[in-house]
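Re-run requested by the PI after the first attempt was lost when the workstation crashed. Everything re-entered from the original request form. Ligand of interest: 4'-deoxy-4'-aminopyridoxal-5'-phosphate.
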Amino acid sequence: LNRRLAEFGTTIFAEMSALAVKTGAINLGQGFPDTDGPEAVREAAVRALRDGRGNQYPPGPGVPELRTAIAEHQLARYALSYDPDREVLVTAGATEAIAASLLALVEPGDEVIALEPYYDSYAASIALAGGTRVPVTLLPAEGRFRLDLDELRDAVTDRARLLLLNTPHNPTGTVLTRAELTEIAKLAVERDLLVVTDEVYEHLVFDDAEHIPLASFPGMRERTVSIGSAGKTFSFTGWKVGWVTASPELVSAVRSAKQFLTYVSSGPFQYAVAEALALPASYFDDFRADLRAKRDLLSEGLTAAGFDVYRPAGTYFVTTDITPLGESDGFAFCRALPERAGVVAIPNAVFYDHRDAGAPFVRFAFCKKTSVLEEAVTRLKSLA
Ligand code: PMP
Ligand code: GLN
């Protein structure tokens, strides 16, 4: 393994899912739903396969039906207008969108600022691009992980090229507010930064939280690559259909990298996701309501079991602090948890450069059947 990748090893998700299989524990580690997405969308994929749509290489930017559906989604939801022919690119999940964006836009030695804790592929993709990552740590305050705007401002040096943002945020569940995004946008314009914004959990926001795309702020549309994914919104993580919306120049750059990574992907599934994006508003509302109830069930169960809980405003993850349980090392805690309580979780420290800052935090996923969450909560109570 070369020096760029040597520090990364195996992803925590593979390690923890393997541990769940080996011990028979309930897997609240890796974020994937245990119920597939809508029947109508699965049927659309079957129809595409049967009708021979997408069984051979689809067009490089993605099939026109899906690009149009993505553009219509951005317009209807956020009043953001993108030309499906020049400003939309379909990717092999958000993971490829992130990697291709960084490979396309970062010069070796450029600094890339990312909010820590960050989704694990960010660090590896920055490294593949030869960039230097500059983490800005989200700090817990008043029940939420908060971005310190002064710290963000201080992190921008003359070598800074790009800000890699994620809202709603995995693993903390923080949804950046309009006020925070306004300041981020001002900073990006002032310091002439490109922004890659990972918005894969855009539809998973609860209560009065609102997802506002960074691209909709003044001066941002032309400097922002926005990333979405069907995996999260429609519960088909195995299909690996993601997308990028940005200016023609940025989309063309990302596509230059993408064409040598996968060239194209997910042919028939692209047609199905085009139909999914056109589902009525009730689909999105019901999905959100279901997850909100699950968030509350798991958050309350974790509180009862003795954890400090950061109830998330978005995503399907809840971050906890294990300190009240007399624990301080999330890694050791998560490695022992399957034997101790029959549950698998993820130590947030893997998402930090400053591992000490993440040590006491542990993440649980709640995109699982209610009965599974109830059983997990019962098991976890044995820790109290
Ligand atoms: N970004 C974030 C923040 C994620 O949580 C995930 C999924 N775990 C991804 C990107 C990757 O999405 P996809 O499965 O579409 O590649
Ligand atoms: N995004 C999911 C998570 O954060 C997992 C994705 C993966 O396994 N690479 O848990």
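Saved to the shared folder this time. The first helix runs from residue 12 to 23.
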